[in-house]
Fold this sequence. Notes:
This protein is α+β, with helices and mostly antiparallel strands. Helices cover 23% and strands 30% of the residues. The strands form 3 sheets. Strands 1, 2, 5, 6, 7, 8, 9, 10 and 15 form a 9-stranded mixed beta sheet that branches. Strands 11-12-13-14 form a 4-stranded antiparallel beta sheet, with no helix packed on it.
Amino acid sequence: MSKISFEITELDHPIESTYDYLVKLLKERPDLPSGTVIHTDYQTAGRGQLNNSWFSSPRLNALPSIYLRLDRPLQQIWSISEATALAVYKSYEELLSSEDTIAIKWPNDLFVNDHKIAGILIHNALAEGSVAETIIGIGMNINEEAFPSELPQAISLRLVTGQTYDVKAFLRQMLSHLGEQLARQDYTALHAEYNDLLYQRGIPARYRDVATEEAFDATIQEVSPQGQLVLTTLRGRSDAMPSKRLSTYNIRRVCLSARK
């Protein structure tokens, strides 16, 4: 697969969500080119996972939504999430010091120094055994100086380094990384790199089964090629445990949708 070209549309007015804007645009223009990126300086109702909101002050952060037609086999659907997470990871990593720690928190968050700095929302449309279309929404905290008290885990690049950054330059660099990661053909190597950067991998933690309310201790071993978390518990290894069983760290699977 050749490297993807991205075309950024900068909106000069506030909108509710770049993600919702892109979905609406697709309904009006089903021939929208792959690589279309919608970005605005300010969105009033940004979306996170499970319909949660995404906090962002005007003109301080990068909030793109990206439309892609990758024609990727269904069995490689998780590689889209891995490629996106790695692109965001690399964009931050090159601006951080060696004293900072950055990791990918399964399935779609980026953590710096144990605080959330970015989140990814992906919807895939499936057709005839392949991924026909993908929409990627990303919230990347860049120059935010303060977060609401109800978001104690949130952090920004500015809060980590004390510096101010060009948001649009950061976005362009992230898209460059994204094109490179999505073009990778060695899915095994991509998957291994994602697992190497997994947040809290190998660290015992407390989890809760949301079906039974039972609490248990477990250790993250890896993420399977299908995107499921693999844990080791006191009862032994639990291979490819479904995401719905875990909730302590707000763990959720990537959301799939079919677009007709």
